[in-house]
Write a structure and sequence with these properties.
115 residues; alpha+beta; 4-stranded antiparallel sheet; two-stranded antiparallel sheet; 2 helices; 6 strands
Length: 115
């Protein structure tokens, strides 16, 4: 009797796991450009502030500065290379020009000094 119950439970368990795997959506090549990566994570010495860049595969990314204690996030479009002051009072970072503008100028074969 125990063997029969064990076999039935095993059969039901395997059937549920097979059905769960069928519901996954296959990835296509169109979704690759939607993926984003986290780069250049920077944490202050006290751990009060964290900065990171959220960059797409192609295009403009953004810099996110967050306070883990208060869960407060601030984002800056096209921000990059963040650095914090020694007393954690200031954050310094660059803001790059828009990707589309630079790409168009490069395709028009403008000189680097004109970019």
């Amino acid at each position: 009797m125990k063997v029969v119950v064990l076999i039935i439970a095993l059969f039901i368990g395997l059937n549920i796991s097979v059905n769960a795997q069928e519901e996954k959506i296959p990835l296509s090549h169109e979704v690759y450009d939607q993926w984003k990566s986290i780069d250049k994570v920077n944490i202050t010495n006290s751990g009060e502030w964290v900065s990171y860049e959220l960059n797409p595969q192609v295009g403009d990314g953004k810099l996110i500065i967050t306070n883990p204690l208060t869960q407060q996030d601030t984002s800056f479009e096209r921000g990059a290379k963040c650095s914090f002051s020694g007393d954690n009072a200031f954050a310094v970072f660059l803001i790059y020009p828009q990707y589309d503008s630079i790409r168009k100028l490069k395709l028009d074969k403008k000189k680097k000094k004109d970019l």
